[in-house]
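Predict the 3D structure for this chain.
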Amino acid sequence: MLLKLYEKNNNPADLQKVVDLLRRGGILIYPTDTMYAIGCHALKERAVERICRLKNIDPRKNNLSIICYDLGQISEYAKVDNPTFKLMKRNLPGAFTFILNGTTRLPKIFRNRKEIGIRMPASPIIQEIATLLEAPIMTATLPYSEHDEIEYATVPELIDERFGGMVDLVIDGGIGGTDSSTIVECTGDEPQIIRQGLGELVV
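Done. Predicted structure below.
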């Protein structure tokens, strides 16, 4: 199922439909400020497990990531010291994934590893959904292979054609990007960029 959403003035009933789907444990594909992503309610462990299976991710070996709607929510699910808080405040919302130590508020599947990726995309659609949901959204890149043409990761109709049968909803937010987020490791003494993507870190 394909649902068209816009950067502003969305029908509240359409947004509620997405939020209800997430609360029921559904999974969806949605636009971010980088690429289209696949996600679910991060506190619904079975939905998180479903995405891990789709992506062939072993959560004991791979960090999982969540989208938070504001900096206050981040501190509920990750351990944030003062310098890291200030760094995130300067750069979020934006095309970054900050690697932090997680808290016990996350389901057990996240706690297989100490670290968690934190995203706060500069994308009005997913920001609005996360705010209405009042919960973090587990997020991952599409189960896209290098053999797929790039249009299958950027054009909503083709994303729906390729992946629609694997998920409960595909949000059409227009043509998606092709760049990844910049990953910033913040669990050591100093923040360290471990992958340079679209985001240019302001330190």
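The CA atoms of residues 55 and 143 lie 5 Å apart.
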